[in-house]
Amino acid sequence: MIGNIKSGLNKLFQGSGFGRTFSDYFNRGISKTENGDYTGAIKEFTSAAELNPADPAPYYNRGIAKSELGDKAGAIDDFNKTIELNPVNSNAFNNRGFIKYQMGDYHSALSDFDKAVSINSRDAEVFYNRGNVKYRLGDFRGAIADQNKVISLNPFNPNAYNNRGLARNKTGEYKKAIADFTKAIEINPILAGAFYNRGSAKIKSGDYKGAIVDFNEALKISPDMETAYVNRGIAKDAIDDLTGAIADFNKAIELNPNSTGAFFNRGNSTYKSGNLNGAIDDFNQAIELNPLLAGAYVNRGIAKDAAGDSAGAYFDWQKAVELGDEKAKTFLRLF
Question: Model confidence over 309-322: pLDDT tens digits?
């Protein structure tokens, strides 16, 4: 899920030809921004702002250049100044909101996107960004509504369909989610994330073979997508292709040795294949990476119990109960 910062670079003014005027500095800043020289652009916009501190344009464009260099705090300062000088600049609210979104300040970002929408209710990009922040805040219905608006304004935006599908996945509307991911793929056939997301939705709807096909496509486009190997492994495990599942989890671990999900799920498949010690080793690793993963304690306890280590199993189930796992309570009652 990605968002956007709006460039909104002003058109070039006609230079004076005599000395260095506001427009000279400003135009040079625009040119350097367009050529990717953001450090140089910042210097030019700073000079322009010094000559005319009441004009919001140098601050706005300097904020864009700073954001490109990763200076989020500096960019926010410039967008603050832009808004102070021009309180109806919707792009400044949008850009400030997007940077706050990147920083994880979702509530404040939402406030900025709300303000941008109130100024310009026809800007698809602002609705797209607001939908993304609503998703992060758990307002999945609100996210769907915003992506609906994006699609009404721009029916050929594949990311809007993809992100609406993600929100619909969260609300359990798997068929609609799959339809959204399919539409995103129709618009952009090399959108690896849409294939991945459609595969994940198919797992939730029980279409494991269909999910494997989608993860295959995602991996053709993005061969190093670790999570696609993990989820394809889960789908293979579900149809009892344990060898294929373990191979996928192995590849995921090769790509990311800290993949808790790969170790946990490989432990499940290894247990089903009858390799109890191997399963216990994988659950050990998953717990080392995430000591709060209750399911790993539950499943390690099952493997230990099957291997004859009743005391170890009891300890693991107790730990799982401490972490709030209800399934572990049943095992303890039957112990």
Answer: 999 999 999 999 99
The domain boundary, picked from 223, 242, 269, lies at: 223
Contact at 8 Å (CB) between 135 and 143?
yes
Q: What is the pLDDT of residue 321?
A: 97
Parent domain of 335: 225-335
**Predicted TM-score (pTM) of this structure:** 0.90
Q: Tell me: the pLDDT tens digits for 183-223? A: 999 999 999 999 999 999 999 999 999 999 999 999 999 99
Residue 197 placed within a domain: yes
3-state SS, one letter per residue, for 94-136: HHHHHHHHHCCCHHHHHHHHHHHHHHCCCCHHHHHHHHHHHHH
Max CA distance (Å), the chain: 90
Task: State the CATH number of the domain containing residue 175.
Answer: 1.25.40.10
Q: How far is CA 77 from CA 80, 213, 310, in A?
A: 5, 47, 61
101 lies in some domain: no
Tokens of 73: 């705090």
Overall number of domains in the chain = 2
